[in-house]
Amino acid sequence: MAKLPVYLFTGFLDGGKTHIIQESMEDERFNSGEKTLLLQCEDGEEEYDPSRFWGKNVYLEKIENESDINKENLTRLSKQHKLDRVIIEYNGMWNLNNLYVNMPDDWTLYQEMLFADANTFLSYNTNMRQLMVDKLLNAEMIVLNRTPANIDKEEVHKVVRGISRRITITYDYPDGHVEYDDIEDPLPFDLDAPVVEIADADYAVFYRDLSEDMQKYAGKTIRFKGLVARDNLLGKNGFLAGRHVMTCCEADIAFHPLVCICKEEFSAKTGDWITVTGEVKLEKHKLYRGEGPVIYVKSSSFAVKPVQEVATFY
Q1: Are residues 39 and 83 in the same domain?
Q2: Structural domain range at position 263
Q3: Are 17 and 114 contacting, i.e. CB atoms less than 8 angstroms apart?
Q4: In what helix (H) or strand (E) does residue 33 lie, and over which residues does it extend?
Q5: 215 in helix, strand or coil?
Q6: Could you report the average pLDDT of every consecutive run of 10 residues in the chain (314 residues)?
Q7: CATH of the domain at 45
Q8: Residues 164 and 62 in one domain
Q9: What is the total count of domains within the chain?
Q10: What is the pTM assigned to this prediction?
Q11: How far, in Å, CA of 223 to CA of 199, rounded?
């Protein structure tokens, strides 16, 4: 069954979502007659002008309540028209996971972009951190509109990279020129070292980078401190070791461990802190529900818990 590509535009009021979608639909390079369902999930100061869309192929539907983001309603809207694609202008105050889990089975997320006013981005992050993390976590690009000449790019970079290392940061200035973030963002550990030492303060960055690009860790020997969790599925020689990680606030703290396997029976118990040294191999494992990093332990020792038990990106 062919999948309908979904273009997802996220952000907060006055971030520029409506404007960029309007411009895109007027551009024949983006809109060359595809049957398009445009879902508008919030009303801003700017309104769409469908009369300027190229062709008569765009079906504009408004969704006013977050409860209407459900599989039944989205499927109904989709079936009203024979579609080639879906464009969604999502409400910045709504949680994106609600959309992810309720998309019809024949929809597939093709592109996700975040639009924000550069003048209010940092204050939004301060006052609505959880919602900002929600929008940055899976976006491929953030476009900061109305960028002032004196914008603190270092601070913006820090905020964005604290959530995602792969998102492209774009600055759109009032005079029309565009700049891309080019601040170097090296990892805080040496991947070329014989033993890659993961400091206590760097576990969150390490785990995220490993999750995003496992291949570059294959065959590497790493050393890190982690909290032990035993699981009967791993037998007497296996265990989990990792840290609790906080992305944005206490509500999202979660345990992010790695599967570890010893040559001999492992004696530590759940709740012990240990330092693990081992080789990373990428293997299918039932606890990962697919391929993931398995640490073949070369040595381990009991350790003192970190000063900050919950790992963060700051």
Answers
A1: yes
A2: 196-302
A3: no
A4: none
A5: helix
A6: 89 90 90 92 84 80 95 93 93 95 94 96 93 93 96 93 87 95 88 97 93 95 97 92 84 90 94 98 89 96 95 80
A7: 3.40.50.300
A8: yes
A9: 2
A10: 0.68
A11: 9
